[in-house]
Every structure is written in C-alpha cells, then in structure tokens.
Amino acid sequence: MAKGKNYLGGGFGTQPQRQPSGGNQMEKKRQSQRMQEELSRSREELEAQTYEATAGGGMVRAVVNGKKELIALEIAPEVMAPDNVEIVQDMVIAAINEALRTSKRMRAMADGLNMTPLTRPER
Predict the structure, then answer these.
(1) What does the alpha-carbon distance between residue 13 and residue 25 come to, in Å, rounded to a whole number?
(2) CB 3.0–4.6 Å: which of 27, 31, 91, 119 could bond 60 by disulfide?
(3) Domains parsed from the chain with CATH numbers
(4) pLDDT per position as a tens digit, 55-65
C-alpha cells in the first residue's frame, strides 16, 4: 500500500461519509400525508358548499354546489306570464352561469391556497 493513502476511507484526514438518517425522511413522509389529508378534507368541504346567484332583480335565483350541480332554482310567479318566456329563460341562464362562476372562483382560490410546498426550504 502506498504511504499516505487509505483505500478504505479516502485520503488523509477524511472521515467516512455518513448516510442521512431515516428519521428525516419519515417525518417528511408523515408531513406529506397530513397535507394530503387536509387537501382532501378541503376539497370535500368545497364540494359541500353552495353558491347562489340571482338575475332579473331577484326574480330568478339559482343555487349550485361545489360539484357544479344545479341544486335549486326559484322563479318568481309574477314572471311566469306566457309573454315573458324568453325573458325568464335569459334570467335562468344568467343566474345559473353566475352561480357556477362563483363556484369556480372559490375553487380556484382554494386550490391556490393549497399549493404550498410539502417541506420548508432549508435555511
């Protein structure tokens, strides 16, 4: 063997390299799992939320849920005259679309809030 060379651990003054501890990896995995559970709960809560919009000064009211399903539609009796059919149809469409837009905005905001890194950056 050549003088000054340590073939088992490197050259002079070097320490054998240590493997990172598995505890840090396990903590990251637990943290990731907790965040996934929180995200799942948040999505379930969003799907259960209802979003309401009106049209025609409140003559038509539409309610949708977070799954983008129409769950309620109310039309004031005074707009149901035969000569108001087209107006009522337009108000229904407007109310439903506004309720869906509100649902979509809330979902986008919630998704934006949940897009945090799984781990904090090292300092």
Answers:
(1) 30
(2) 91
(3) 51-115 (3.30.1310.10)
(4) 999 999 999 98
